[in-house]
Design goal:
Length: 587
């Protein structure tokens, strides 16, 4: 599994502002930076598709002229002359040649559009992956104090729903680019066919803008509030089970169902309103388009425009309705999905600057030695009281130390300071003769192993779980570590042994079984400091005592810190640090 080292450096100030235009610009900017040359190639293919579409439509003129000679006007003479000069004399030969050219063109256009769609899909999926990795990298490198303030539900929502909505925003943006290029090429063709018809068309396009923009804006407002509503429901759905549990326990199940039903009704009403606005926009667009068609026919008669030109122009007009509709719908859809982009940006702002870790030449190695808390004061940002004030203590290399105390006295904070997740507000932590800080953090973290109460297992085999975070090791080493953690019999009894998959992160194992696998994994890191954070509390006392003795034998030189409440566990330690109040005392 690759470890991410470099947080993203995109400046937060370039991010969304809440206005569609500014947010759209920021999203496009991000997308352009990501797409680079491939986006250029996609745009070139879009342009080629547009031009081929224009040429294909232009070929309708000779086809119509040859089909209905009396309607051709000056076009027909020109076309017949050109084809005759290359040896195609009869009407049938000329028609066959033009139709062949048309078919070839349709084939080439289909190939270009298929290449365009492949590239566009690659780009949009790749961009979403890239943004997801950016978020995960930012989270992985954020200061722990910033991270601890975030709600889990918010992160889960961003990494699942919001990223998916961003994928949709990308495809909408790309649709808009394609539609715009199509429209421009079709408009140019219209001008070439007949400037008079083009002027009429532009007049109607402007009329359409004047009528449709306010209507679309109102439809977009409705779309935006629908998105907010759906977002709120999604948030509540995430806490559904918790809410249901309390409701059932309080005999409020029917009220809970009614509450969920009411939210559904409100969302439906909102969606109906949105649909109504979209229908209104569609009715007005269709009316303007049909009026434009009628006026074009009228204008053609008035200005004596050949029927062939008129027919071709009408086909172009019909073809233009697709990109126009696509553009208009895309703008509305962007309103709905843009909050996803804003949410990603807000998360980056809330995470603040990444934690400083020196790598390369500036990095220092730490050597095994006494761990010393030297006049440590620690206060969480925004907290009124400090967790530790002027804490002085030392843990000798190779000591087995217990850490205990009532809830809220700072055990987790102590461990987080020791692993460098939190930085002291005052004072310093020494590892041997090195100060724990940006230069020594990477080296120190490579030398420690941390096992939590709720063990993190990945959805993979036991073998991969054991070597997660350390080098690949031969099977005998893995079995030895499992035996030391008291898990060898358990894994040996599984039909696939080390290759047994840990489905659903090992939830089918008991808490104690998961803890023993996590402990074996920690032993395989051969750490200088082993932290067991309530990591054996789900194991029965007799097995736990045996496991602690095994661990000590397996790591004779390592310092071991056990956070525990059980007296039996603490009795196995050389000494115990007891956190009694926020002003720590040590016994
Ligand atoms: N992110 C945070 N922001 C502000 N205060 C915090 C934060 N995390 C913990 N605290 C406070 O710091 C104090 C120490 O918390 P800590 O989690 O270290 O205690 P603990 O001994 O590990 O508790 P427990 O045994 O319940 O896990 C508590 O008063 C807690 O409310």
């Amino acid at each position: 599994m690759p470890f991410l080292r470099n947080p993203t450096t995109a400046p937060a100030a370039d991010g969304p502002t809440g206005s569609l235009v500014a947010d759209g610009k920021a999203l496009v900017g991000d997308f352009v930076r990501y797409g680079g040359r491939r986006l250029g190639a996609a745009l070139a293919l879009m342009l080629a598709g547009g031009i081929l579409e224009g040429v294909g439509l232009a070929l309708l003129v000779p086809i119509f002229s040859l089909l209905a000679p009396q309607t051709g006007g000056r076009w027909r003479a020109m076309i017949v002359d050109t084809l005759s000069s290359v040896g195609l004399v009869t009407r049938l030969e000329q028609l066959a040649a033009v139709l062949l050219a048309f078919c070839l063109l349709v084939g080439v256009r289909a190939a270009v559009l298929s290449a365009r769609d492949r590239l566009v899909s690659d780009l949009s999926l790749g961009f979403v992956d890239h943004r997801r990795l950016m978020v995960v990298t930012d989270l992985a490198h954020a200061r722990w104090s910033s991270l601890a303030r975030l709600r889990h539900a918010r992160i889960a929502h961003i990494l699942s729903s919001e990223i998916t909505r961003l994928a949709f925003a990308c495809s909408v943006l790309l649709q808009m680019m394609t539609a715009s290029i199509m429209l421009v090429t079709q408009a140019i063709l219209m001008i070439l066919l007949s400037p008079v018809v083009a002027v009429l068309m532009i007049g109607f396009a402007l009329l359409g803008l004047v009528v449709l923009v306010p209507l679309s804006r109102r439809a977009a407002d409705v779309g935006r509030s629908t998105a907010r509503f759906a977002f709120r429901i999604a948030g509540e759905t995430a806490h559904f089970l918790g809410g249901l549990k309390i409701a059932v326990a309080h005999d409020m199940a029917d009220a809970f169902v009614a509450q969920i039903g009411e939210e559904g009704t409100q969302l439906r009403a909102q969606l109906t309103l949105q649909q109504r606005f979209q229908s209104r926009v569609a009715i007005v667009s269709a009316s303007i388009a049909s009026l434009a068609g009628a006026m074009m026919i009228f204008g053609a008669v008035l200005f004596d425009i050949p029927t062939v030109t008129l027919l071709a122009a009408l086909v172009v007009l019909v073809r233009m309705s697709g990109p126009v509709r696509s553009l208009q719908q895309s703008v509305q859809q962007l309103f709905g999905v843009m909050p996803a982009f804003t949410a990603l940006h807000d998360l980056k702002v809330d995470l603040g600057p990444p934690v400083a870790i020196t790598s390369g030449a500036g990095a220092q190695s730490v050597r095994h030695g006494t761990i010393r808390f030297d006049r440590i004061t620690f206060r969480y940002p925004d907290a009124s009281a400090a967790v530790f004030t002027g804490l002085d203590l030392a843990i000798g290399a190779g000591e087995l130390v217990g850490l205990s105390g009532p809830s809220g006295t700072g055990k987790t904070s102590f461990v987080d300071l020791l692993t460098g997740l939190l930085e002291p507000s005052e004072g310093r932590i020494m590892i041997g003769d090195a100060v724990l800080g940006p230069a020594t953090l990477a080296s120190w973290r490579r030398r420690l192993a941390y096992v939590a109460q709720d063990s993190y297992l990945i959805n993979d085999s036991i073998r991969r779980n054991l070597t997660w975070g350390s080098d690949v090791r031969p099977d005998p080493d893995l079995w030895q570590a499992l035996a030391q953690a008291g898990a060898a019999d358990m894994v040996g009894a599984m039909p696939q042994g080390l290759d047994t998959p840990m489905d659903d992160r090992g939830t089918r194992l008991s808490g104690g079984e998961r803890q023993r696998i996590a402990l074996a994994r920690a032993l395989l890191r051969d750490p200088q400091l082993l932290i067991l954070d309530e990591a054996t509390n789900a194991i029965d006392i007799a097995t736990e005592q045996a496991v602690i003795a095994n661990v000590r034998r397996a790591l004779p030189e390592a310092t071991i810190l056990i956070i525990a409440h059980r007296e039996e566990t603490l009795r196995a330690c050389d000494r115990v640090i007891m956190l009694e109040t926020t002003q720590t005392t040590i016994s």
